[in-house]
Amino acid sequence: MVRVLILGGTGDAVELAAQAAQISTIEVITSLAGRTRHPIAPSGSTRVGGFGGADGLTAYLRESQIDLLIDATHPFAAQMSWNAATAATAANIPHLMLIRPAWTKVTDDRWIEVVSVDAAAKAIPPDITRVFLTIGRQQLAPFVPLTNTWFLLRSIDPPASELMLPNGKLILDRGPFTLENERSLLLDYRIEAIVSKNSGGDATYSKIIAARELNIPVIMVDQPPMPPGERVTDVSSALRWLQQHIKSA
Question: Model pTM?
Fold first, then answer.
């Protein structure tokens, strides 16, 4: 059996684990960071929690006799991706990154592109007072001091502390979201701007389409730089990579 470790946390990782588990010569282990209380359970074995940096992941790869490593983490889990690249090199095993392409600005999009969440908080125009904040629950601190702005926040789980909640309303929900849903949300809450990470994929792109239709500006946080190495943009290509390495194993 070829032991494959998938670093998960995305819908692509769940789909990849499900399809890889159908290959009789593969044992699939998916690792989840544990930040979501009720994650979608992937096929195969699952471990939850961090590794303790690149050194800890290297030790796990060796101790668990992992043959192949696929990084299918969220595009903004950049530190994990750099740790994975370092650990795969140290353990001398093949390593692949499954990275969804970032969204591309099109005609009629009103994007204010920034390099970080901190920069996004500073980029909210002073005349805008109602903002749809869709960056998850981990990096809300830069928005807490903006007491003159009302935020509609959406995340899968609530923040660890209410002290980290900016002024506004919290909605707990999980994508994918329809265009009709997003359009109604923006209109019902009289949203004047959106803050979003450029996560790519289809699950949350409807809010970008709705903003385009309603002429609402989007403060878009660019994806962080990723480590060098082999990369693909879809599950089918990741499966082909797996099959090629199984043959040579």
Answer: 0.84
pLDDT digits (tens), the chain, 249 positions: 899 999 988 888 989 999 998 888 889 999 987 555 555 556 567 888 889 899 999 999 999 999 999 999 988 888 999 999 999 999 999 999 999 899 999 999 999 999 999 999 999 999 999 999 999 888 899 999 999 999 999 988 888 766 578 999 999 988 789 999 999 999 999 999 999 999 998 888 999 999 999 999 999 999 999 999 999 999 999 999 999 998 766
Reported for 91-95, long-range contacts at CB under 8 A and 24+ positions apart, including other chains, are 91/58, 91/61, 91/62, 91/66, 93/61, 93/66, 93/67, 93/68, 93/69, 94/67, 94/68, 94/69, 94/230, 94/245, 95/68, 95/69, 95/70, 95/71, 95/229, 95/230
Domain count, the chain: 2
Under 8 Å between Cβ of 168 and 132: no
DSSP letters, 43-66, are SSEEEES--SHHHHHHHHHHHTT-
Are residues 116 and 209 both part of a single domain? yes
CATH number for the domain harbouring residue 68: 3.40.50.720
Judge whether 105 and 130 are in contact, CB under 8 Å.
Answer: no
Structural domain includes residue 12: yes
Residue 106 forms part of a structural domain: no
**Domain of 67, in residue numbers:** 2-100+225-248
